[in-house]
Design a protein that fits this description.
Largest sheet: 10 strands, antiparallel
Number of strands: 17
Number of domains: 2
Helix content: 10-25%
Order of helices and strands: HEEEEEEEEEEEHEEEEEE
Distance between the termini: 103 Å
Length: 249
Amino acid sequence: MKNSKLNLYLFSVLGLGLILTSCDPSVEALGEYDSSKATFLPLITLEGGDVTLACDVTSYSDPGAVASAGGVELDLTTDIVGTYWGGSNVDGPDIYSVSYSAFNDDGIPATNFREVFWPPCNGDLVTDIAGVYEVTSLVRTPGYSTSGLGPYLIVNLGGGQYGISDAIGSWYDKEYGYGPDYCAKGMIIQANDIAANDFTLNVTNSTLPWGGTVTLTDFSVDAGAGTITIASQWPDFGYVWEWTLTQMQ
């Protein structure tokens, strides 16, 4: 009998609680003020893919891209950065990154990329050293040796001056895989007499992200072998690089 009374009492309390809860105007019904809408993520579709130009082209016209969200076309922003010489337009030999970006109505971004390679034409190594090269031998002291890195670019800047893509032979860029931000960029040399291996080195300075200046100590051309041998040093950190470039056909 006592158990029956206890059970009846519990049911009465629970029932009262349910009645009070269902009648309490302060308890919101689930989703009463909720709303939802569909969000279409932005999509950027390239017209074509990566581009390799002929070395002797005089201009470039980008095929572009299309940005859309849910079938509705979006405004598209295009930015261009030259890898080694930093141009904001594809207007001469370099490897360019072309980036396309867009936002949907909710501010969600999308990005896509194209690489445009404008190779310098290979010179004869007697009157012109411009060209596309492979680093067929690279030694860092202290360190170790490696090979097979490329492409490595030498660009004719006019007036006998040449820009080289990396004053340490692509060591951090390609051997370590850090990318071109870790090249010793900006080095220019003056060719006084290529056939006589007469060059003025370090017309400009090259630096690395960690600080200090990289300087060239040797630059010699072997036209018969189709190679260039270069040496540089980074005295701030005690490193020396020596590498051989072989023209790529």
